[in-house]
Automatic annotation (TrEMBL):
<dbReference type="GO" id="GO:0005912">
    <property type="term" value="C:adherens junction"/>
</dbReference>
<dbReference type="InterPro" id="IPR039808">
    <property type="entry name" value="Cadherin"/>
</dbReference>
<feature type="transmembrane region" description="Helical">
    <location>
        <begin position="615"/>
        <end position="646"/>
    </location>
</feature>
<keyword id="KW-1003">Cell membrane</keyword>
<dbReference type="Pfam" id="PF00028">
    <property type="entry name" value="Cadherin"/>
</dbReference>
<dbReference type="InterPro" id="IPR027397">
    <property type="entry name" value="Catenin-bd_sf"/>
</dbReference>
<dbReference type="GO" id="GO:0008013">
    <property type="term" value="F:beta-catenin binding"/>
</dbReference>
<dbReference type="GO" id="GO:0007043">
    <property type="term" value="P:cell-cell junction assembly"/>
</dbReference>
<dbReference type="GO" id="GO:0044331">
    <property type="term" value="P:cell-cell adhesion mediated by cadherin"/>
</dbReference>
<dbReference type="GO" id="GO:0016339">
    <property type="term" value="P:calcium-dependent cell-cell adhesion via plasma membrane cell adhesion molecules"/>
</dbReference>
<dbReference type="GO" id="GO:0000902">
    <property type="term" value="P:cell morphogenesis"/>
</dbReference>
<feature type="domain" description="Cadherin">
    <location>
        <begin position="89"/>
        <end position="169"/>
    </location>
</feature>
<keyword id="KW-0677">Repeat</keyword>
<protein>
    <submittedName>
        <fullName>Cadherin 11, type 2, OB-cadherin (osteoblast)</fullName>
    </submittedName>
</protein>
<dbReference type="InterPro" id="IPR000233">
    <property type="entry name" value="Cadherin_Y-type_LIR"/>
</dbReference>
<dbReference type="InterPro" id="IPR015919">
    <property type="entry name" value="Cadherin-like_sf"/>
</dbReference>
<dbReference type="InterPro" id="IPR002126">
    <property type="entry name" value="Cadherin-like_dom"/>
</dbReference>
Length: 800
């Protein structure tokens, strides 16, 4: 059942917007937009209040007012909290047992509820631009048990917008460009402002654009913000930049609305609307006559206020008497016309030139072609200045000829130079030494006549290229040089000779009339037309019976064999003198010897060998083979040196022992002495160490540091002592000798001793005679004779 609250009237008085919503269990009062819904709901409230006063209650089963949102004005700054609305439930009897609970966005912080009355207040100032709405949930519960009396209901509190935000240009300041001379209404750019207020409510966000600064040159469309030109023929050369201020105002531009401004810097871009113009109509320049081609004479510039390619200017001569002498180009950096010399000028010939120069734009805008012409002209006067010039030769170069072997002082030719200045000073000639190092020529200092200083040889140097210098006498001593080419004419002063000096090979079995070689000749002199060499055998060899010669009359000759067969054993080389005549003027001849070598050939006349073969074969050994042989020899020498060095480092004995005991070896001698009694045939002392004869045995592997004197007392004579005593004496000497080797070494002696029971060890007699000697006794001689006993004793026993 819905009850109409008395507080509704007070709520209507407080807020212009009232909404009543409820169900069969509850009634809600809240602020809402006025408009037609407000009037409809307000009339419903009054109707229900009137029926209530009459004591009538309306019952509607399962149907109630639909509600889901409240409204609150933003930016409220009153002293008390703003009443948003009131909640009331049918189960609330007013005894305080019903408790209202509020939850959701901002509940408890922004929005608070009176748990007894259900009034909802906003405790803080709300800003719609920060948050436009809040979603809350309301519920009635039992105060004592906190049990829900009704199901929770969700509703929305919307923040109602007010005009509290001015328009803003987020992308300002702006920069724009528009061509100069644009038509009125040409679009420059569009500016756009934004308003944070609600565009769906009222006119808070409805913007209107206007121009505060920039009239009368520009205008702006109020609704779109498009800036357009408002004045025709705006000239960039007069003014290039404009500062425009644009304003955007909300509330449709009405009074009380908020506004924002932005700056727009508009630049006029250039177009070719100005022709080039010379600042003056006549230009005066001067050039010295000593300037060379390509040098600059002067500059002039036609001014064009346009920029870039619109201001490019080209220059050209259109008339004048110096169009072939001068040329004009354009300096792209400075846009100046540069006048240069095309060819040198001469003060004495012409002293002034007049030229007409035209300057024109290279790029013309067809929109402004009617404003033309885009060109201008000026007059240039060039004065030629006199200069002290060096002498000038009448020719750029000279060429002369001189006979070969001509005597010194022969005239070669003459050069001539003169002073081109008005003074016409005399000229002195000379030859720079660096052009004629060996001084073959001389020149007359006053007349310029060139002469030879010695005879010239064409075969050594056929051409002489020298320079002659002419210096002005007086003035600044300026000089100039000219090239002189001198050709030495040939004379027949060289005899012909063989073209090659190779030997001719002929087979031993060559038959008479066989052609063995065709010879030719050369001559250092120049050959005249139809001139050829003539060949003949020298008079001293005309009667030879071995070879003949045939002149081919084409500067060659053929050599033929006139005898049958040759023998290398008899004569292996023949010399044939040949006389060569060049038929020149005067004729020159020489005798050249042709060497013919006899060789061995097979049946097909293929040469097998010649006498020179032993000398030729080594030449066939390649360089690589020689290098390889030398490398092998070097490696072998290095190995030998390394081996000797290692042996010395280890200090090995000079006598190398084999692994087998030396005492078990049999030493065989090819010479047999005269026996034990023969003391005259061989001196046993010679078998002794000659260095130890005086009691001093030097070491062979090292140099002794101290020299010991010979010990007193003599050694027993070998001829008077037994072998045993002899050996003991030698062992004692070796042991007590500090210079003897410190290691074991073999000592060889050729003395058997006197009265040996073995007799002679020679078996020469046993080979030729029948010997019945028994060698079994060798077994009792000890281990030294074991080898001998095995050889003889065993053999004899087997033979027996």
């Amino acid at each position: 059942q819905i009850r109409i609250l008395k507080e509704t009237i007070s709520l209507l008085l407080y807020s212009p917007n009232v909404i009543l919503q409820g169900t069969k269990h509850s009634a809600v009062a809240a602020s809402a937009p006025l408009e037609h819904s407000h009037r409809r709901r307000l009339s419903l409230h009054r109707h229900r209040e009137r029926t209530g006063k009459e004591g009538q209650v309306l019952h509607r089963s399962k149907r109630g007012w639909v509600w889901n949102q409240f409204f609150v004005i933003e930016e409220y700054t009153g002293p008390d909290p703003v009443l948003v609305g009131r909640l009331h439930s049918d189960v609330d009897a007013g005894d305080g047992n019903c408790k209202y609970i509020l939850s959701g966005e901002g509940a408890g912080t922004i929005f608070v509820i009176d748990d007894k009355t259900g009034n909802i207040h906003a405790t803080k100032t709300l800003d719609r631009e920060e948050q436009a709405q809040y979603t809350l949930t309301a519920q009635a519960v039992d105060r004592a048990t906190n049990k829900p009396l009704e199901p929770p209901s969700e509703f929305i509190v919307k923040v109602q917008d007010i005009n509290d935000n001015p328009p803003e240009f987020l992308h300002g300041p702006y920069y724009a460009r528009v061509p100069e001379m644009s038509n009125v209404g040409t679009s420059v750019m569009q500016v756009t402002a934004t308003d944070a207020d609600d565009p769906t409510y009222g006119n808070s966000a409805r913007l209107v654009y206007s121009i505060l600064q920039g009239q009368p040159y520009f205008s702006v469309e109020p609704q779109t913000g498009i800036i357009r030109t408002a004045l025709p023929n705006m000239d960039r050369e007069a003014r290039q930049e404009y500062d425009v201020v644009i304003q955007a105002k909300d509330m449709g531009g009405h009074m009380g609305g908020l506004s924002g401004t932005t700056e727009v810097k508009i630049t006029l871009t250039d177009v070719n609307d100005n022709p080039p113009k010379f600042p003056q109509s006549v230009y005066s320049m001067s050039v010295s006559e000593d300037k060379v081609s390509g040098e600059e004479v002067g500059r002039l510039k036609a001014k064009d206020p346009d920029l870039g390619e619109n201001g490019l200017v080209s220059y050209r001569f259109i008339e004048g008497d110096g169009m072939t002498v001068f040329e004009i180009t354009t300096d792209t950096d400075t846009r100046e016309g540069v006048i240069k010399l095309r060819k040198p000028v001469d003060f004495e010939t012409k002293r002034a030139y007049t030229l007409r120069v035209e300057a024109s734009n290279t790029h013309v805008d067809p929109r402004f072609i009617a404003w033309g012409p885009y060109k201008d002209t000026a007059t240039v006067k060039v004065m030629v200045e006199d200069a002290d010039e060096p002498p000038a030769f009448l020719a750029t170069s000279y060429s002369f000829e001189v006979e070969e072997n001509a005597h010194d002082g022969t005239v070669v030719g003459r050069v001539h130079a003169k002073d081109t200045d008005v003074a016409n000073n005399p000229v002195r000639y000379m030859i720079p030494r660096y052009t004629d190092v060996e001084q073959f020529f001389s020149v007359g200092p006053e007349d310029g006549i060139i002469k030879t200083t010695r005879p010239l040889d064409r075969e050594t140097l056929p051409w002489h290229n020298i320079s002659v210098s002419a210096t002005e006498i007086g003035g600044h001593h300026q000089d100039t040089k000219v090239r002189v080419n001198i050709k030495v004419k040939d004379m027949n002063d060289n005899a012909p000779e063989f073209a090659t000096q190779n030997e001719i090979l002929v087979c031993e079995n060559a038959s008479p009339g066989k052609l063995i070689e065709t010879v030719s000749a050369v001559d250092k002199d120049e050959m005249a037309h139809r001139q050829y060499f003539h060949f003949s055998i020298a008079p001293e060899a005309v009667n030879n019976h071995n070879f003949s010669l045939k002149d081919n009359r084409d500067s060659t000759a053929s050599i033929y064999v006139t005898r049958r067969g040759f023998s290398r054993m008899t004569q292996d080389v023949y010399f044939l003198p040949i006389e060569i005549n060049d038929n020149g003027n005067p004729p020159m001849s020489s005798t050249n010897t042709l060497t013919i070598r006899v060789c061995s050939c097979d049946s097909k006349d293929t040469i097998l060998s010649c006498n020179v073969e032993p000398y030729i074969l080594p030449a066939g050994l390649s360089t690589g083979a020689l290098i390889a042989i030398l490398a092998c020899i070097v490696i072998l020498l290095a190995i030998v040196v390394l081996f000797v060095a290692l042996r010395r480092q280890k200090k090995e004995p000079l006598i190398v022992f084999e692994e087998e005991d030396i005492r078990e070896n049999i030493i065989t001698y090819d010479d047999e002495g005269g026996g034990e009694e023969d003391t005259e045939a061989f001196d046993i002392a010679t078998l002794q160490n000659p260095d130890g004869a005086n009691g001093f045995l030097p070491r062979k592997d090292i140099k002794p540091e101290l020299q010991y004197p010979m010990r007193p007392g003599g050694h027993p004579v070998a001829n008077t002592v037994d072998v045993d005593d002899f050996i003991k004496t030698r062992i004692n000497d070796a042991d007590s000798d500090p210079t003897a080797p410190p290691y074991d070494s073999i000592q060889i002696y050729g003395y058997e001793g006197r009265g040996s029971i073995a007799g002679s060890l020679s078996s020469l007699e046993s080979v030729t005679t029948d010997s019945d000697l028994d060698y079994d006794y060798l077994q009792s001689w000890g281990p030294r004779f074991k080898k001998l006993a095995d050889l003889y004793g065993t053999k004899d026993s087997k033979e027996r």
